[in-house]
Amino acid sequence: MTDKEKFLGEFEHVLLLALLRLGQDAYGAKIRTLLKETIERDVSIGALYATLERLESKGLIGSFMGESTPERGGRAKRYFEVKAKGKLALKRSRGAIDLMWQGVSLSCEC
Amino acid sequence: MTDKEKFLGEFEHVLLLALLRLGQDAYGAKIRTLLKETIERDVSIGALYATLERLESKGLIGSFMGESTPERGGRAKRYFEVKAKGKLALKRSRGAIDLMWQGVSLSCEC
DNA sequence: TATGTTTAATCTACAATATAGAATATATAA
DNA sequence: TTATATATTCTATATTGTAGATTAAACATA
Question: Residue A13 pLDDT > 70, yes or no?
Fold first, then answer.
């Protein structure tokens, strides 16, 4: 099959990057905090997982359950990681945006 | 009011850039062709106008009908232009993406 | 071992964005 | 007055984005 490559939604794009940045430590709450702190995007846990789930079902990321031995109690974490296919999608997406920005300058009015 | 700034969808982002690049000549078919040629994104006219419409209703772009005097026949064109608010949104969006990309390198595997 | 507290993930429902293709409008040419 | 060309509008649906309540699993301690 032709593997009709779709484009990433913006939130998907940003989420993939969050996973890459967090590396070993990419799980729900951590991701949420990162997004909040770096780009002030304040998303709910539900929104977060829904998109992660979708990304996984598209094969762009993978996930696995971590050790169930937290310090003070609490359920085990589910860690996420970007797969090769996800990295490729990121490259494409970024590439397209960069191409479109070529020659555009917003230096002035706004 | 706090003017809760939303994020641009990816297609919205790309469309705004297309308008900026086309300048005076930004109307349906032309936009569609540009997208096809620069980033190989082959979108239908319907999809295109639907998004332009949304962008306009959000106040990010404006539009006006052009001269109804084409060479060989055909309906008058509707031209689009990016407003200051649209430029601002672009800046924000681009800024967020750039921030998230900081420190991320995809040099290798994919 | 029951009950509370903590941390985290899943579920449910809905809103916004993306997308296509048919239908319609308007102009010119024959 | 009909055909042809160019362009926009309409209608319908799929995919993404979003929130908040609910459930799960661990630990502490009475």
Answer: yes
